[in-house]
What does this fold into?
Amino acid sequence: MTSEDALYSRPGGSPNTFYEAIQLIVPTTGYYDIKSLGTMDTHGYLYNGSFYPSNPQLNQIAHDDDSGGNRQFKLLVFLQAGVPYTLVVTTHNSLTTGPFSVVASGPDNIYFSPINLVTTSKSNKIYLKLNRNNSNDFFNSKWNECFLATSTQPPIITSSYSNVLTVNSAEFDRTGNSSSVYYYQAYQLRVSRTGNYTFTSSSGMDTYGYIYQGNFYPTFPYFNIHKQDDDGTGTNQFKLTAELRSDITYILVVTTFSQATTGTFSITASGPDYVNLIPI
Ligand SMILES: [Ca+2]
Ligand SMILES: [Ca+2]
It folds into this structure.
């Protein structure tokens, strides 16, 4: 869900919620289970045929808010083979954006097709996991390929984190000389899927970023460095691209090029799965 998505007024709910409309069709008639995964509070609506944002109750046949647990929708619906339906994913609150996934199970594949996905970056945002056997542990089964009709790329999931460096922040001398003061914010960094991840800063400060593998020792700043970068974005902002393994804990350290610099910053992380950053 991004700010490029369309807005509408959710029935009985918040005005100005972003939504994604996804066309679906099944080759076999039967009960299908469709739910969202993510951290946003989602709603799911199913429509028989087309969805009209200006009249969102027309054609509606199912709606759910939180049956999937963790504020995720879960729709158990009886779908007729060969009949086009529209799944609308939106959020409980206004103007909410973030990544989400849709997973489905049933007696056969569900074929999804995005309706209002207009850019390639957006086409990577939703991915779907299907299980033909409808077994109880399908959430633990392997991810299939992206089922979005327009996507040939693996999913790219982006998350953002903001923070501030102040005179009360932790300090170290990133040059290792113990003679200078650089404020920093350290994060415990874990991923649940091994792969290449990119971390980019955005700030009025000239930032400097490090990824440490295992422990970070402020008095030995060169020890355990996995990646470091100063100006990889070309605008004084760091851009760290690194392969991260799911079985290793890393430390991301955000600091500055010059000494004793304070200010706000944000970090955008992208990769094949969610990135969990915990300030430490
Ligand atoms: Ca919900
Ligand atoms: Ca820099």
Remarks:
- The pocket of calcium ion (ligand 1) is lined by residues 41-43, 65-66, 71, 73, 92 (CB under 6 Å).
